[in-house]
Amino acid sequence: xxxxxxxxxxxxxxxxxxxxxxxxxxxxxxxxxxxxxxxxxxxxxxxxxxxxxxxxxxxxxxxxxxxxxxxxxxxxxxxxxxxxxxxxxxxxxxxxxxxxxxxxxxxxxxxxxxxxxxxxxxxxxxxxxxxxxxxxxxxxxxxxxxxxxxxxxxxxxxxxxxxxxxxxxxxxxxxxxxxxxxxxxxxxxxxxxxxxxxxxxxxxxxxx
Length: 208
Known about the structure:
Elements: H1 3-9, H2 17-22, H3 40-49, H4 55-67, H5 69-96, H6 101-115, E1 118-123, E2 128-133, H7 140-153, E3 161-163, E4 170-172, H8 185-207
Antiparallel strand pairs: 1-2, 3-4
């Protein structure tokens, strides 16, 4: 399986761009798991798949990455550090109802920096005004994730944030009765059912 194919087939169970970004580290309940992000190009693949980056912008950033490979590598490493920062903040929110203070300060600083590059742009076709990043910079994938997490943290949907008890992925529970437990019933839900059935059978065997 190619690297790009790995990104393209990754499950998008988060419900919002920043959570799918955090979930690019597969099965956080284990020390060793698949990391879907291995280089800067993977960041661009993810942004395009999440539909937060137009193809034209991606092409510009690809050219910049080729022209400045060392800077692209540096921005990729910063993006991975951001991913782990987001996980710590959001994970603690699900567990304790409040974020870790130091990490929240770090995130706040990064959000403020990223949002300073947003510009208002009027789209004639739709007649809508939008806030977008118009500056072609290698930092843009991280900026997009910071914009996404800022929107989540300041919205009512923050109350829908949950952590999967099986793989520790984060997701928004938008189910009708807010009873969704797993990131995906087809994966973690089924695995849990199988484990539960196995342990129940073992207990029954011991009793007999």
